[in-house]
Amino acid sequence: MHAMLAKGQEPRSEEAPFSILDDDGNVRGGVQAPEVSDEKAIALYRGLLQVRLVDDRMMKLQRQGRLGFYMLSMGEEATHFGGAYPLRASDWIFPSYREPGAFFWRGYSIKDYTNQLFGNAEDPVKGRQMPVHHSAKWINMVSISSPVGTQIPQAVGMAWAAKISKKEDVALVYFGEGATSTGQFHVGMNFAGVYQAPVVFFCRNNGWAISTSGDRQTASSSFAIKALAYGMPGIRVDGNDLLAIIAVMEDAVERARKGLGPTLIEAVTYRRGGHSSSDDPSQYRDPAEVVRWEAHDPIERWRRYLEQRKLWSEALHEKFTKEITDELMVALKHAETVGAPPVESLFDDVFAELPPHLLEQRAELLAMPRAKSGHGS
Amino acid sequence: MPVMNIIQAVNDALKLEMRRDARVVVLGEDVGKFGGVFRATSGLFEEFGKDRVMDTPLAEAGIIGAAIGMALYGLRPVPEIQFADFIYPAYDQIVNELAKFRYRSGGQYPAPVVIRTPYGGGIRGGHYHSQSPEAYFVHTPGLKVVVPSNPYDAKGLLLSAIRGEDPVIFLEPKRVYRAARGEVPEGDYTVPLGEAKIVRSGSQLTVLTYGAMTHTCLEAAKQSEAAGFDPEIVELRTLLPLDAETVLQSVRKTGRVVIAHEAPKTCGYGAELAALIAERALLSLEAPINRVAGFDTPFPYTLENEYLPSPDRVAAAIKQTATF
């Protein structure tokens, strides 16, 4: 065990969250850091960088009108990798809409990612959902839903199913602090506690739910403390400290896999960008707050940590930047040239097979002139 | 052949399928040791144990949300919602999640969950133990909606539903749970979804109905017959997908239609049937389409027999339509 994860502890917000690395990338005294191999540590850096670079490009495309909508993760990237890294490939992740790094870590390509954003014929979800609503069964990444919190009881059901099927699989479910206000959070936590389901609840507390600040979501002294009411441990971790997240995740996953039940993790981080490309945070929060958090950037902290381990160099950074940018450029060019999904696919996957009324409606649509354009982007 | 009521037939189907397919699990409020408030899951806990017959906390959104997760993982959950009136806390999980999972994931994540729930009035249950919510679910692309009226169909349709690849809302007519008895074959058989059944052949007009109202309509037909009318009764059995062919064939033959259901009239399932007939068989009609439905009020307690379409009301509608 790296961090205190005993039932009955009271993770209060006035206390500093569990942290291993300081902002300079030094391992704090007196804490036991998890072992991350050189190779993995570098791969994690590449992943963090990829999310930042991809986000940056996609926001620009959105502003240029080439992409309909986007949601960026700036400042929260460590939560994507800290959650996904300690899992086995056979474990399942129920994401919300702000963890693209978890997809990338499991092998979702920039090409898949870009095709989804453009809703084109090669989109893994066949152009059925808005940008950033990915789904990748081949890597056990479950389909994303826009209403917050709905994935929480589903993750519990999957974990419960694994348990009764005598499998070792664990579920990780991501959600923002806003989702803790929903009934779905309550029923999911409660079911998991009662049935000791092997699930890790990962609350990305990024301070803001669109314009609603954290203190309007709860009167509790923290989000992690809510775990106590469900009979499970809750822990607050520095959400910009990748090593600390890995540490608490490793503990939580181990507990789940050993049959010791669920854990709630509150990762304290900050949403430096808007909620989405449609949002304007300058309308509701002090820009100085954003500047303060820039000093705690999770990628810079990991970079400094790698530097301490003599694993980082400017040349390595440039190499990764070039590789990622090249891959992204190819993917974008491709995504913009691939057309919309075939019109008849509109009716597929409503059911396993097309019932008569959908066959009729499909024939009706196909007999009509085509709409001006699939909006594709 | 054994004679069963609907509860016993549902129970028989669940047992049979749980023996046949280890992926089938049952979850819900009081479904385990107690065997369900209507006893539909009686004996399952003893035979299959707590890992396959799960008493859940009292939260419908949790029951359906968890069932979805189980289905994604490869199980075949058959959750029970104790009364259809209690299904609304799970509404988001059903209409936004369950119904759309296959579609929104581009076909990657099917979620074959069969939600069993007793529906309908006539048990002096007031508005929280009497509602007929079928229209909400028929209106949601991605869900199949099934309503049996008798033990034979209940078993055969439930087996089809559990073996299918799609989510199903399986509405059980609790007013006739015990009253509707009939022969049910032992062992395995299925009744396919999407096939209506002519439960009384007639030449003069078509009565379209489903669920517990089937029995009301059959009684009304006896009265009508005595008065010299000859109605045909088509029991839909599956509301989605609808067996439109059987419906339209009967309407084209008789030229006159009465539609009967318990649910409120406005935007009830009968409205869809009326529209279908108007679209496809208008020129066969000899009389206006006549809907006999629950009133557009909340379901009442004391006056429930006034609210529910009675055999008299259906018989009156038959007479009105036949003599138009």
Keyword list:
heterodimer, A: 377 residues, alpha/beta, two-stranded antiparallel sheet, 11 helices, 7 strands, globular, B: 324 residues, Rossmann fold, 2 domains, five-stranded mixed β-sheet, four-stranded mixed β-sheet, 12 helices, 20% strand
Describe the protein's architecture and organization.
The complex is a heterodimer of chains A (377) and B (324). Chain A is 39% helix and 8% strand. By secondary structure, chain A is an alpha/beta fold. In chain A, helix 4 (110-118) packs parallel to helix 10. Chain B has 324 residues and is α/β, with parallel strands linked by helices. Chain B contains twelve helices and 14 strands. Chain B has helices at residues 6-20, 44-48, 60-73, 91-97, 101-104, 134-138, 151-163, 213-226, 244-254, 269-281, 304-307, 311-322; strands at 3-5, 24-28, 53-55, 76-80, 114-119, 144-146, 168-173, 181-183, 197-200, 205-209, 231-235, 238-240, 257-264, 290-294. A five-stranded mixed beta sheet of chain B has the order 9-11-10-13-14, with helices on both faces. Chain B is globular, with a radius of gyration of 19 Å. The termini of chain B are far apart.
